[in-house]
Amino acid sequence: MRRRSEREMSRRCGGSFSPWAITVDIAAAGVRAVAGVVIATTITLVATVPAGAAVGAFGPTVVVNSNAATDNVGTDYHNRETYPVAVAVGPERWLALWQSYAPLPGGGGGGEDQEIVRSISTDDGRTWSSMNALLADASFDERFAEYVPAAESDGADVAVVPMWYELTWPNDGGRRVGILRSEDQGETWSSLIQLSSTGSDNPPGDIATDGAGNWVAVFASDDSLGGTIGTDYDILFVSSSDNGLTWSAPAPVSSHAATDGGSWDIEPKVATDRAGTWVVAWECQGTGDAISSTTHDLGATWSAPAVVVSPASGYLGEFDIETDGAGNWLVASTTHGAWEAEETRTVRSTDAGASWGPKVYLGATGVTPDLIWAGGQWKVCFGTQAKALSSPDDDTDLVCANSVDGGASWSSLAVLNRQISTGAGSNAMARLAYDGAGGWLAIWQSEDPLDGSLGIDADIFAAAAHDDCPAAPAPDCTGTTVPARSTVRVQDKPAGSGGGDLAVWTMRNAESTALADLGDPTTATSYALCLYDQTSGVAELVHELDAPAGTGWTAIGAGYRFADKSRLSTPVTAVKLQADGDEVGRFRLKASGLTLAPPRLPLAQDTEVIAQLRNLQSGRCWEAVYSQASTNDATRFSARSD
Predict the structure, then answer these.
(1) With contact defined as beta carbons under 8 Å apart, do 424 and 393 qualify?
(2) Quick check: 8 pLDDT over 60?
(3) Of 82, 234, 312, 593, which residue is least crowded by CB atoms under 10 Å?
(4) Are 314 and 251 in contact, with CB atoms under 8 Å apart?
(5) Does residue 387 contact residue 365 with C-beta atoms inside 8 Å?
(6) Phi and psi for 422 in degrees, rounded to 5?
(7) 3-state secondary structure of 391
(8) Tens of pLDDT along 164-176?
């Protein structure tokens, strides 16, 4: 284990160290303290906070790049697509961007000249347009290795992305960073707005907007800014207050940029609460720590750097930063090293990055985490080779977790997409986006040939999800006429235990329910089962299970039946909806599999657990309340209704 003094760490990274004002039960081995900050080789957190919600299930895999079936021959993997990002640019409209090595129409791209390309979906991610280059000069430009690490939108028409590129001989001047801007939801793009001109910029970087015309982009550069900060890599920022039309000159984030010696600061991330506060986090290679700094005036001044997370050994891997706009700031990160080999965890700040709390582990080793707060919940997805959580082979698959308590606890991990767990080839670089209206998109790079139809090169895949359950229970749902006629069972078996996750809900004797109330799920009526857990009498959504209309539904004598053993569109495997001539309803729903992700157990049930089945077309719902449980422990919750 490396031991570093406070003076050494401050000199090399510019970090300020203050005690964590957080109480937590720990069991630690190899504990050391630096100016009141306890850093332990092993930390076991005892959670006394509400459990995180289960992650919503993403639908079937969709191939984004239109050349996926033709961009390679046999075992040629060089024409790959990589580094995808996505952003919502309108209702049911998604913009996807990535780096393409494949030849583009009219020349350009392929082999050594990588280009940034885009595709647009106007039907909520189900289909995608033909891919084409962002820049009009892609066929004959002298840029090399173009790369887009992030994308942002103002929530309407404007989308802005930072772009890194290298200049080819004879104009080789190192790596540069520029900005591209669209005013028509990603259809057309501006010429490249260059942000740097000397030194060499080190990808990746990040960009964020407050939705009110202000933007901040951050990147690492060895530009000395005219000899004012030295030639080691420091974190620079640029800002715009006119929706990305013009940008400030590059300036350092850290006040120690001129005095931090040979320490490299790299891979910055930025987030804003959209209320004037911006936090930048980055990696200090000199110590392996993640560092953060905060501005409240669009970069005119920055706080002294603070340590976000310090690995017990090894070095910091990939990480991401986000905020919920309500005082919680989260960083998801990995560590590479002997003690925390590729361990994935989050840390939280409640004071805008001035101090950071203890690590909360996500339950699996992993790489490249992507973190997002939207729709009233946190989601994090990352790549893992944990066989018990994904496919039985050794490739990398993608898993996700949710939190509804500011990152204090997380749901069980679920495979992002069913086809990921059954296909061959590694999946990586998952990125998440939200449209502001309950719609989610996951986009990632995959080497899965999809049964041989795509070859072995990397292509771009996507999957969509929707939040259909309200945050709080509906007040007017139909109940049952007979006590104890509804049951609920949730099973969350630990990874590798040999058991499977399971959710089963039944309800009989639902009052005032006619056949017409069920709608027609074979064509247009989708359903969602919403599970709420009360803590001190306040109900929070902890689980959602969706049964979409269409494929899988059949009409039966007095209702409808759904069956989907493939689980490609939802972890729900069976549903039965019935209403007899006496207007009495009977319902049953069952779900299982790797994408299920039950809520973290035991449930609080203080004082009740509430299950509501919702007809998403009409809004009609049916409810059962459970104030007593027959089993409520770390692996199982089961109860009969009141």
Answers:
(1) yes
(2) no
(3) 82
(4) no
(5) no
(6) -110, -15
(7) coil
(8) 776 554 445 567 8
Gap between the Cα atoms of 99 and 148, Å rounded: 7
Chain centroid offset of residue 559 CA: 38
Give the whole-angstrom CA distance, residue 356 versus residue 378: 18
**Span 480-539, pLDDT tens digits:** 888 999 999 999 876 554 457 899 999 999 999 999 999 999 999 999 999 999 999 999
Q: Tell me: the pLDDT tens digits for 313-344? A: 556 678 899 999 989 999 998 876 544 455 78
CA distances from 575 to 358, 433, 436, 543, 552 (A): 42, 30, 29, 17, 10
Q: Is the link from the previous residue into 103 a cis peptide, with omega within 30 of 0?
A: no
Strand partners, 572: 591
Cis peptide before 162 (omega within 30 of 0): no
Amino acid present at 330: L
531 backbone dihedrals φ, ψ, rounded to 5°: -115, 125
3-state DSSP call for residue 7? Answer: helix
Q: Give the sign of the dihedral formed by CA 233, CA 9, CA 303, CA 207.
A: positive
Q: By C-alpha distance, which of 629, 422, 613 is closest to 521? A: 613
Dist CA 114 CA 109 (whole Å): 5
Distance from the Cα of residue 593 to its chain's centroid: 21
- What share of the chain in percent tops pLDDT 90? 37
The candidate with the shortest Cα–Cα distance to 285, out of 319, 318, 315, 259, is 315
DSSP H helix total and E strand total for the chain: 2, 43
Helix, strand, coil fractions of the chain, as percent rounded to 5: 5, 40, 55
User: What are 237's two structure tokens?
Assistant: 């920022």
Handedness of CA 619, 621, 625, 626 (dihedral sign): negative
- Better-predicted residue by pLDDT, 516 or 452: 516
Spell 85-110 as b/e; 16+ CB within 10 A means b: bbbbbbeebbbbbbbbbbbbeeebbb
User: Which pLDDT score is estimated for 274?
Assistant: 93
Over the range 297-311, which residues count as b (16 or more CB within 10 Å of their CB) and which as e? ebbeebbebbbbbbb
- DSSP symbols for 530-591: EEEEEETTEEEEEEEEEE-SSTTEEEETTEEEEE-TT-SS-SEEEEEEEE-TTS-EEEEEEE
Region of 438 on the Ramachandran plot (φ > 0 left; ψ -120 to 50 alpha; else beta): left
365 and 385 Cβ atoms separated by less than 8 Å: yes
pLDDT at 201: 76
pLDDT digits over 258-302, tens only? Answer: 887 767 888 899 999 999 999 999 988 877 788 999 999 999 999
CB under 8 Å to 416, separation ≥6 — which residues? 58, 381, 397, 398, 399, 400, 430, 442, 444, 463, 595
* Whether 81 contacts 460, CB under 8 Å: yes
Instruction: Name the 3-class secondary structure at 545.
Output: strand
Are 88 and 74 in contact by the 8 Å Cβ rule? The answer is no
